[in-house]
Amino acid sequence: MMLQEIRCPQCHALDKTKHMQYQVKSGEIRFIYACKGCHNHFSETKNTPLAGLRTNMDTIIKIMKSLNEGMSINATCRTFEVSRNTVRNWLDKLGSLKKTLLLYAQCQKFVSQIIEGDELYTKVYKNTPQDESQGWTIVLMERASRFIWHLKCGEKDHYLFMDAMGVVAQVIETTQKLSLFTDGERRYGNMLFEICHEVIRTGKRGRPAKTLVENVIVRVKNKGSQAHKKGPKREKYQAPQPEHPATTLATENHAIHANHLEAFNSALRRKLSCYRRRTNTYAKNTERLQARLNVQWIFHNFICKHFTTKKVPAVALGIVEKSFSIAQMFRMQVLSTAHP
Fold first, then answer.
1. Can you list the alpha helix ranges (DSSP code H) found in 83-131?
2. CATH code that applies to domain 109-223+235-286
């Protein structure tokens, strides 16, 4: 797999030779490579999450699995007798792969995608009203493969939604037909319309109309009851912005939902202790919460099989041929400029 190939940290070339070998504390044999292009010498763990780590890899794998199965950081540290700073350092190193993996995924071509969008909430630092919390998390999931395109936390404001729609806009560039279904939040469609829209020129007088790009549709499920309200009743499913007249996508009302994403949100509350209700295991700041989400994004998309599809989401979507192990992830290079 191209993601596992060892490149020169300076010129990113693949043409290299083995210069020498050395043995680490755990007894593992590693190699020093010499680049044939720039004549740079580098270790096989250079720019990888494994660089500089002295702990046995088996211990790191056990701790990462424990965190992914619902143990809090404090409970994990007590069980395995490691410090919190050490565990946080491992989380940051593994989470640094997210940017490289996301760029690799966005370089693939897709025929059609159905993306579900929803938000979930948790406490950060202390118990505050929901509208003031920094623990709102936007999730964008591809329905068929269960691949998560976006998983980010912060205040529920314009910037949080704009980041999510920026990812969708990049996915649209590599997808022929895309549908976005959200459960009641209109800002998804409105901000996507701001980022990517087309101007329809018909030759008639007046300002030309703006629509979503061709073969992109957005549907919002209207929440709440209007039984006590007067006037015309709004439709249960609505397009927040006008669509391109040449769009050929057609969606039945029963297919407009975010049920798969709701199931993921329930699983996330079980797998990450900082998302559990009525507990004091919530994150102390958004940086640490995002670090946990980055690792969860990697586990969900590239390591673990989904219990419904029986496939790793990245494999089901066609991004990679087979799943990765935790040890392979720690050996993957984090490049300043991703070269998929």
1. 84-95, 97-106
2. 3.30.420.10
